[in-house]
Amino acid sequence: MYDIISIGDATLDTLLKIHDAEVNCSLHSDRCMICVNYADKIPVDRLDRKVAGNAANNAVGSSRLGMKTAFYTILGNDGVGEFIMDKLKKEGVDLKYTIHDPKKETNSSFVMNYKGERTIFFYHSKRTYSLPKLEKTEWFYHTSLGPNHERLNKQIATYVTKNKIKLGYNPGTYQLRAGYKKMAEVLKAVEVIFVNKEEAATIVGPQHDIRHYLLALHKVGPKIVVITDGSNGSFCFDGEKFWQMDILNTPVVERTGAGDSYATAFIAALYYKKSVPEAMCWGTCNSSSVIMKYGPQDGLLTKAKMLAFHKKYKHVCPVNF
Q1: Are the C-beta atoms of 276 and 237 separated by less than 8 Å?
Q2: Is 32 domain-assigned?
């Protein structure tokens, strides 16, 4: 039996750190643009290649936190896929549900880091997803997939309902672009959903304030709703109380994987029978540790390091609002 099975795509991230750019917020007040010289050669200060993808980040993070973890994904039958598998094996992730597609390449992303903030260019190979026959598990973590994800959504919703499995859900770009109707069945089966404020608006439409976003998402199915909002911290509604937690005052090197690490530790805390406020602390600690490193996985905490990190910042606690 597993503690958690991560479901979603894995990628190889190529991380590019640049300095020769500028940010322009004058064209649209609600979103800023990163600008580089057109048709120019842009110097790169640092280049790294890291295993990534929301589900892969969750699988590695869950394993480090002591959970018996398996991973359902589809990789290309290429060197990149082998590189990803080797990394995950070293992290103790069970890959018995990993499938190799001989006709497609493994997914890739290019992450441009400028002044600590990242802009991601991603490529998803076309996949045909189908839930394999799985061993028992306490949790599923369902996250970013390519365009053809609707069939798998329905399979997961049916499977978790029938087998009484707790479902963590962090919809990716293609799932969000498909709209609420395509994810409605999954949302009704969700134990806890993780989205940022902009993603929440995509699902339930613009709301008056963060409370209304939390309530609107809770109304469509999830028992626990978590919304992250950058420097404003994270917000949660557990069906009874509203909680808010500030970010920690830690250095920022690069923000890739911050959301994944938060969700991973939040679920791990629930698995270890922690309260929702404690789960928010774990999520915040894991996220803070990740953004102090380069890439989405180097800073993921083990259980022992989580307890030490949490102890150091125990003065920052969730509050009712």
Answers
A1: no
A2: no
